[in-house]
Design brief:
Helices cover 53% and strands 2% of the residues. The chain is mostly helical. A two-stranded parallel ribbon has the order 1-2.
Amino acid sequence: MKQGWNNKIAIAVATTVVCVSVIALAESPAARQTNTAASALPVREAGAIAPALPAAAPARVAEKATPSESASELDQRLIAKLLVESIVQIESASNPRMVGSKGERGLMQIKADTWSEVTRRHFGTRIAFSRAFESQLNRDVGSAYLSDLQSFLAKHRNLWKADERALLLACYNAGPERVRQCGFDIRRLPASTRDYITRGSALHDALLGDHNISTHQVRLAMDATRRSGGV
């Protein structure tokens, strides 16, 4: 890969991570009560959730603040990366060669059409779907897709009947249109999606705790993102 292309991806991903980081614990004003080749590749059933890992905890994401960045900026990046890690655990149990029965690929089980559109929009060109098995690239594209979902939710904030993290997980699992049709009410979504939300939220909370990020820090990071022009 050429250095210029590496730089393009790095810039796009950095922008995406900051954008996604506001998701963690925002609540709607309306309701505060609800909180997928070769034979060697494993295949999971459509809509199935990858089995939970054994007792070992999900991989941690190490971050160190540089002198030029504030604590809230570090929190924003960590909150976003830890949510991505939670989704990776549920979708593929961290297996980069996972293939879904509908063709979803890699760590975040991204579909071909989603991959094509997200890479075009965020990286300036449609990256070959054959590269979805590259761990870091899969995470980058999945993170960019989460950013798109967050922007979708922001346009309908007044209709939310659940917190932002729950709705974001619902959109990733069931699709944004399904969530919209259900009135942004997770109680009206299929049981499989509600279970996905529960597992994703619990994993994210555990990872936040591992990094000593409190609810107060999450809210400060969210406020900082919004003040800087984020979602």
